[in-house]
Amino acid sequence: MSVAPVPTLDFEDRFARELGEMALPWQAEPAPDPRLLALNEPLAAELGLAADWLRGPDGLRFLVGNLVPSGATPVAQAYSGHQFGGFTPRLGDGRALLLGEVVTPGGRRLDLHLKGSGRTPFARGGDGLAAVGPMLREYVISEAMHALGIPTTRSLAVVATGRPVYRETVVPGAVLARVASSHLRVGSFQYAAATGDLDLLRRLADHAISRHHPGAAEAPHRYLALFEAVVSAQASLVARWMLVGFVHGVMNTDNMTISGETIDYGPCAFLDVFDPATVFSSIDAGGRYAYGNQPVVAEWNLARLAEALLPLLAEDQEQAIALAVEALGRFREQYSAAWTAGMRAKLGLPSDAEAAEAAALVDDLLVMLQANHVDYTSFFRGLGSAARGEPEPVRGLVLDLASLDDWLGRWLALAPDGQAMDRVNPAYIPRNHLVEEALTAGVAGELGPLHRLLEAVTVPFDERPGLERYAAPAPEDFGSYVTFCGT
Q1: Domain boundary among 126, 158, 180
Q2: pLDDT tens for residues 51-93?
Q3: Could you tell me which of 387, 406, 374 has the C-alpha nearest to residue 346?
Q4: Which segments of 104-169 are extended strands (E)?
């Protein structure tokens, strides 16, 4: 393992220094034959990294953790988590490493983090490795989410390691290098609280305030203000997921960030036909993390954060609980406001549209979409054309034309703005059949389908000639779609 400067980039190890009890120094396993599969050149430029250097031998060693930047202290982070409702007090980065923090030329402090870099003491019997397919999935979907304007961790690169990974079959291994505002999670606070070390919990909260919610530092009650800020951030985030039909798939507390960014794209996918009961994850047999359950689960996870923060909210536990309950009680109101505003924008409704009438339009539309098994993304994109006097794109998606035409008449009477709708209703999302097509080809060494998919989904609102298949619903023979965690 070598240590060397990374051109134009300075690394810091603030998390490791300030929260050493939650940072286990560790090194990535050597990658025998690193080969670049995907490089996010615009993100590299934002970080101040030269793409040519990243493509070279030292850059590849850096991207898999085998060349440690000067000033960095690679660590596996400790955290707890409720996984499908059951609490595990010691999870942590079993196959991941935080290389350190960088301050971009624009002044942002960001984590650079590796996934699939080998076993750590948190691996709990796992091999600590990642396969090419799941790492390419995270690259595609995280960058699509960023292009959709949804807060998210981002993918810098996917590098094949040259090491086989044993899953159901033998598959090629890879490391994902990703970037985030931080990797602090609800589970981080659960871990600190479970130690019983009040000083550690307080230092973690202060660290989170400094990095993500600095306004809380000026509040009369800084730790209550921190919790309120996380509640608000998550209410907004989950509403945005719901508006684009995104299903996270594994909303454990260790997968909910304090920053309000989407993290850990495991068994995730986007809706094809609209159905609140949609589940894509192979391990979610009970539908705990179904599309329609996501707001409820987010609120449940935030309650677990509140429990962890109680010792900081007040010395008297009853008083602390009362403060936490009041703050958590705002989640539903904030989520509802974000969802309602987003739906009004998706329908192009003017600001003076009466609230009850708008709400009825939304409710009736969703019932109709579910009953008619309508492709969610195609329908909303087609509505922009309907607002401009071309209803046939949406009429071709719905069997019950009488109900649709009645709904369209009520909606058109409010004079929706079709151009505004096209700015919020994407033409292109990472459609499940296209993602699978790109990943299958990528695992086989053919990256053309991946690059063509990225071309579409990273500019999602602008329709372009030649990309028609990326805007089309899944073919009828695609069938039921199941995703896997990749571990």
Answers
A1: 180
A2: 999 999 999 999 999 999 888 899 999 999 999 999 999 999 9
A3: 387
A4: 109-115, 154-166
- pLDDT tens for each residue of 88-117: 999 999 999 999 999 998 889 999 999 999
Counting the structural domains of the chain, the total is 2
**72 found inside a domain:** yes
Residues 177-224: tens digit of each pLDDT:
999 999 999 999 999 999 999 999 999 999 999 999 999 999 999 999
What is the CA 338 to chain-centroid distance, rounded?
18
- The answer to whether the beta carbons of residues 62 and 72 sit under 8 Å apart is no
Domain contains 433: no
Which has the closest alpha carbon to 263: 276, 272, 275, 251? 251
Helix (H) / strand (E) containing 59: helix 57-63
CB 335 within 8 A of CB 238: yes
Question: CA–CA separation, 246 vs 426, rounded Å?
Answer: 13
**Secondary structure, 3-state, 390-432:** CCHHHHCCCCCHHHHHHHHHHHHCCCCCHHHHHCCCCCCCCCH
Task: Report DSSP state, residue 75.
Answer: E
Helices and strands, counts by H and E, the chain? 19, 14
**Alpha helices of 198-289 — where are they, by DSSP H?**
198-212, 222-244
Who contacts 127 (Cβ-Cβ below 8 Å, separation ≥6)? 95, 119, 165, 166
Residues 111, 254, 264, 375: which is the catalytic one? 254
Domain containing residue 353: 349-416
The amino acid present at 481, given as its one-letter code, is: Y
| pLDDT score for 19 | 98
How far apart, in whole angstroms, are the C-alpha atoms of residue 354 and residue 338? 17
pLDDT at residue 72, rounded to an integer: 87
d(CA 29, CA 161): 10
306 in Cβ contact with 227 (< 8 Å): yes
| Residues facing 157 on adjacent strands | 39, 177
Instruction: Clarify whether 254 is annotated catalytic.
Output: yes
Residue 122 in tokens = 């948190």
pTM equals 0.96
Other residues' Cβ atoms within 10 Å of the Cβ of residue 51: 16
Q: Are 127 and 165 in contact (CB under 8 A)?
A: yes
Using a CB cutoff of 8 Å and minimum separation of 24, what contacts does 325-329 make? 327/224, 327/227, 327/228, 327/231, 328/227, 328/231, 328/299, 328/302, 328/303
Q: Which of 134, 153, 180 is the last residue of a domain?
A: 180
Give CA–CA dist 99/40, Å, rounded. 18
Name the β-bridge partners of 114. Answer: 97, 177
CA gap 38, 40 in Å, rounded: 7
Q: Is residue 97 part of a domain?
A: yes
Q: What residue type is assigned to position 444 of the chain?
A: A
337 part of a folded domain: no
Distance in angstroms (rounded) separating the CA atoms of residues 253 and 190: 9
Residue 140 corresponds to which tokens in the numbers above?
Answer: 């595609």
